[in-house]
């Protein structure tokens, strides 16, 4: 067998690489190819092509279907694929299920997509920090968006990071002096 292998290698091999080894079967042994048939390979190729075409049809990144999606890819998927479908469903519900009086009264159907469009934790925290610094949101409003219980700290910063005002009671508190006064008093 060793002589037969060497003769075969000398006739048909382009290199002396061990990957070019051949197998000589003993009497009574059968050889079955381990790779897929050409039909199976063609079916797999068709599946991949169909998946890519389906993704194009719905503006869906192929990585979402393959399980290799990043945060940016998922965001792109939500904005380009899901939101147009959701908006279409909402418009159909508004058109078919609301009376004209309800439509005039500003009623409408809306899916809660806050979990889909929420973004990653670091991005949200950076956005909240900017919103808090610029007095766009109060601390308890941010906690509510993150499904956390409120702290009951209902003050808005007025300036110099030292004067706080409660918009409901019109109380002004100055931490530096410890004074609590009424606005316009």
- Rg over CA atoms, rounded to whole Å, is 34 Å
User: How many strand units?
Assistant: 4
Count, helices: 7
Model regions low in confidence, pLDDT < 50 over at least 5 residues: none
- Fraction in helix: 40-55%
Secondary-structure element order, N to C: HHHHHHHEEEE
Q: Structural class of the secondary structure composition? A: alpha+beta
Q: Beta-strand level of the residues, as a percent range?
A: 5-15%
Task: Report the oligomer.
Answer: single chain
Mean model confidence by pLDDT = 83
Provide the spatial order of strands within the biggest beta sheet.
1-2-3-4
For the termini, the CA-CA separation is 108 Å
The biggest beta sheet is recorded as:
4 strands, antiparallel
Show the helix and strand layout.
Layout: H1 2-12, H2 38-57, H3 62-66, H4 71-97, H5 100-104, H6 121-133, H7 139-145, E1 156-159, E2 163-166, E3 171-174, E4 179-182
Antiparallel strand pairs: 1-2, 2-3, 3-4
Describe what this molecule looks like in 3D:
- There is one protein chain.
- The mean pLDDT is 83.
- The protein is elongated, with a radius of gyration of 34 Å.
- Among the domains are: 120-153, no CATH class; 154-185, no CATH class.
- The protein has a 4-stranded antiparallel beta sheet with strand order 1-2-3-4, with no helix packed on it.
- Helix content is 48%, strand content 9%.
- It has helices spanning 2-12, 38-57, 62-66, 71-97, 100-104, 121-133, 139-145, and strands at residues 156-159, 163-166, 171-174, 179-182.
- The chain is built from 7 helices and 4 strands; from the N terminus they run αααααααββββ.
- The N and C termini lie far apart (108 Å).
- The protein has 185 residues and is of the alpha+beta class.
């Amino acid at each position: 067998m060793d002589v037969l292998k060497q003769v075969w290698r000398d006739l048909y091999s382009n290199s002396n690489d061990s990957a070019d080894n051949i197998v000589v079967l003993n009497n009574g042994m059968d050889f079955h190819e381990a790779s897929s048939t050409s039909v199976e390979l063609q079916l797999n190729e068709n599946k991949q092509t169909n998946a890519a075409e389906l993704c194009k049809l719905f503006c869906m990144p192929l990585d979402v279907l393959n399980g290799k999606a990043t945060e940016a890819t998922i965001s792109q998927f939500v904005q380009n694929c899901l939101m147009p479908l959701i908006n279409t469903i909402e418009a159909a519900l508004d058109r078919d299920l609301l009376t004209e009086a309800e439509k005039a009264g500003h009623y409408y159907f809306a899916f809660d997509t806050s979990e889909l469009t929420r973004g990653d934790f670091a991005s949200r925290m950076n956005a909240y920090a900017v919103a808090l610094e610029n007095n766009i949101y109060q601390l308890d409003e941010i906690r509510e968006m993150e499904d956390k219980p409120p702290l009951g700290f209902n003050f808005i910063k007025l300036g110099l990071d030292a004067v706080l005002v409660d918009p409901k009671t019109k109380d002004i508190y100055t931490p530096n002096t410890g004074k609590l006064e009424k606005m316009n008093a």
